[in-house]
Amino acid sequence: MNERADSGMAVRREVLGDDHVDRAVARTTEFTRPFQEYITESVWGSIWTREGLDRRTRSCVTLAVLTALGRHEEIAMHVRAAITNGLTAAEIAEVLLHTGAYAGVPAANAAFAIGQQVLAELGDDTAL
């Protein structure tokens, strides 16, 4: 690995957790290796390591974009990451509500359902 990949892997582990990253690495094949290297180096090592936004803000932006694009398969992971990055359930709800105003109610509705499930799994009383 190079320095950017090493930094990316460190941030990826800090934000997503060792268990998630270990599962992703274990599932890596020769076919998926280039993609795993790309996201580790470029997304986590070049974008998430930049000083322009803190991790809380990056989590807000990420949740908003995933919601707007209907990338439901990624929302749960990034709700967990947002909690890791210091957002509260109320702040996550505000991001999803705000996104709904601009990206549409169906997108926000789906994201709220996923977020509520994850927060309940994490023991957050507001989700119960």
UniProtKB/TrEMBL annotation:
Location of the Carboxymuconolactone decarboxylase-like domain: 35-115
Enzyme class: lyase
Pfam families in the cross-refs: CMD
GO molecular function: 4-carboxymuconolactone decarboxylase activity
Enzyme Commission designation: 4.1.1.44
InterPro entries: 4CMD/NDH-1_regulator, AhpD-like, CMD-like, Decarb_PcaC
UniProt keywords, alphabetically: Lyase
Name of the protein: 4-carboxymuconolactone decarboxylase
Lineage: Bacteria, Bacillati, Actinomycetota, Actinomycetes, Mycobacteriales
